[in-house]
Design a protein that fits this description.
The protein has about 400 residues and is of the alpha/beta class. It has two domains: about 10-15 and about 85-385, TIM Barrel, CATH 3.20.20.210; about 20-85, no CATH class. Helix content is about 40%, strand content about 15%. It contains twelve helices and eleven strands. It has helices spanning about 20, 30-45, 50-55, 65-85, 105, 145-150, 165-170, 185-215, 235-245, 305-310, 330-345, 365-385, and strands at about 10, 90, 110-120, 125-135, 155-160, 170-175, 220-225, 255-260, 280-285, 315-320, 350-355. Helix 2 (about 30-45) packs antiparallel against helix 3 (about 50-55), helix 4 (about 65-85) runs parallel beside helix 12 and helix 8 (about 185-215) runs parallel beside helix 9. The longest helix is centred in the middle third of the chain and has 30 residues, at about 185-215. It is globular. One of its GO terms (biological process) is methionine biosynthetic process. GO terms for molecular function: 5-methyltetrahydropteroyltriglutamate-homocysteine S-methyltransferase activity; zinc ion binding. Pfam families: Meth_synt_2. This is Cobalamin-independent methionine synthase MetE C-terminal/archaeal domain-containing protein.
Length: about 400
């Protein structure tokens, strides 16, 4: 399912959660500042239901299960309206319904037990699980979540889900390797086989049915997040196979994008070409590696070198134009130049979609909103430069 409209914009997936969204679930009291921020953002985003949220938050603490669910709904509403107000084409709520990208799906799968928290980066942590049996779906991962987002959103909705390889790579394995004997002559081959079976089971038994359920529910844009894709360079072929098994017979029936970030992208080639006709878009991170100087020459846009490897593929290029680990607000002119450089390399504006490098959950909503607004303005500047609508 291809799109030919040039420079469609989207946020990759995650945004920060407001304090008033987090505190009720941590049994912390809502403060005057929390309520004022809910009121201010509601006014800024033209949210008519804000008085209901303010009244709800005025309870301060002791929220019921139903009240917490309503607070989460409001957080989704605010997240979607923020993206729409910024002018984003494909929207999502910034994972307001999820703990984070790993724990949310794994806690809804059978065959896993959580072992404790580990640090991912900065002061961000996630609960790491161990596979103790064959993985399966214990409950719906994202379909009900999508239906709620679709009811709220005025724009098209994109659903991000965590891919099979990342789930496997970020988990301990106590199941598939339990019969391996340390020191056996064929230990490496057997370990590799066990790893492949773990990956196959997650792909076929959890990710494929999730994607199928979302497709049947009407989701037209599905994003597979695979930040771990190049973690082990000798497992790139297994990663490619896991994507094929996750999508299966759904290829061509809806728009599939894969998001890979902060990696040695050279390791993906030529293996990535096996996914042509299966994936529509490949989204990578570029701005993090790039200069902040204006210009459309290679010496200014050195962060976009991997575009030359994507040029001769059939993929739509998901172009990261915002650095997500800094509060630097990229000027529209810088974003324009990054887009123009990519358009020149790829040769077809219809093969480029524009977004931040990754999710913006490490930034405040104020910084996120300003970055996204400038991203949309940068797209408009690039279109005018190229004389396209």
């Amino acid at each position: 399912m291809k799109i030919q409209k040039p420079f469609i914009t989207h946020e990759v997936g995650s945004m920060a959660k407001p304090g008033w969204r987090v505190k009720p679930f941590r049994k912390l009291a809502i403060t005057d500042d929390d309520i004022q921020k809910a009121r201010d953002w509601g006014r800024r985003l033209d949210i008519e239901e804000t008085p209901e949220l303010v009244e709800l938050l005025s309870k301060r603490k002791g929220f019921t299960k139903e009240e917490k669910a309503r607070i989460k709904w409001f957080s989704s509403l605010y997240g979607i309206r923020l993206q729409e107000k910024a002018g984003i084409d494909l929207v999502w709520d910034g994972e307001q319904q999820r703990v984070e990208m790993y724990e949310h799906p794994v806690k809804r799968m059978s065959g896993f037990q959580f072992r404790g928290h580990v640090r991912s980066f900065d002061n961000k942590y996630y609960r790491k699980a161990s596979c103790v049996g064959k993985p399966g779906l214990a409950e719906d991962l994202h379909t009900q979540e999508y239906r709620q987002m679709a009811e709220i959103a005025r724009n098209d909705v994109k659903v991000p889900i965590t891919g099979a390889y990342t789930i496997v790579d970020w988990s301990f394995d106590e199941n598939y390797v339990k019969d391996l004997t340390p020191g056996a002559a064929d230990i490496h081959e057997r370990r590799k086989k066990a790893r492949s079976q773990f990956l196959t089971d997650v792909s076929r038994e959890t990710i494929y049915p999730t994607l199928k359920s979302l497709h049947e529910a009407g989701a037209h844009y599905l994003q597979i997040d695979e930040p771990a894709a190049t973690t082990k360079r000798d497992e790139i072929p297994e990663f490619i196979t896991s994507v094929k098994e996750s999508i299966g017979d759904l290829a061509g029936k809806t728009f599939f994008t894969i998001h890979i970030c902060f990696s040695n992208y050279k390791l993906l080639f030529p293996h990535l070409k096996e996914l042509e006709g299966i994936l529509d878009e490949v989204h990578l991170e570029y701005a993090n590696r790039d200069s902040q100087e204006s210009g459309t020459t290679p010496d200014k846009r050195f962060g976009y070198e991997i575009l030359h490897d994507l040029k001769d593929t059939s993929f739509i290029v998901g172009l990261g134009v915002l650095h997500i680990h800094t509060d630097f607000i990229e000027p529209p002119e810088l974003i324009r130049d990054r887009i123009l450089y990519a358009a020149d390399v790829i040769g077809d504006p219809g093969r480029i979609m524009v977004s931040p490098d990754c999710g913006l959950r490490t930034r405040t909503w104020g910084v996120t909103y300003d970055k996204l607004c400038n991203m949309v303005e940068g797209v408009n500047l690039a279109k005018r430069e190229l004389g396209i609508g």
